[in-house]
Write a structure and sequence with these properties.
single chain; 97 residues; mainly alpha; 5 helices
């Protein structure tokens, strides 16, 4: 089953994958809106979107840099879980299960 999933994934990635990338983007936007906390969203957007360092974020928000680091890591973990679920659903749909 795993090999079949990888083969389907490789075949789809070799072809035009704009549909799959669109789905990943939609899943990410949905996760950013509903699957992480407001604090995680803000700090992730400052870190990745604005390119701020964790020290800069901590100064701006008035918290310790380790708090920023933990918040970002937890937000990333939640987003990974959400995106992983989307990938598993994609594999299941492609394998005929």
């Amino acid at each position: 089953m795993y090999a079949a999933d990888l083969a389907a994934y490789a075949r789809d990635m070799a072809e035009d994958n704009s549909r799959q990338m669109g789905q990943v983007k939609r899943n990410l936007i949905r996760a950013l809106k509903s699957d992480i906390t407001e604090k995680q969203r803000l700090e992730l957007l400052l870190y990745y979107g604005k390119g701020m360092t964790m020290t800069e974020i901590s100064r701006r928000l008035g918290v310790h840099p380790s708090t920023v680091s933990r918040t970002i890591r937890r937000g990333e973990e939640r987003l990974r879980r959400c995106l992983r679920y989307g990938a598993e659903a994609f594999f299941s749909a492609g394998s005929g299960d």
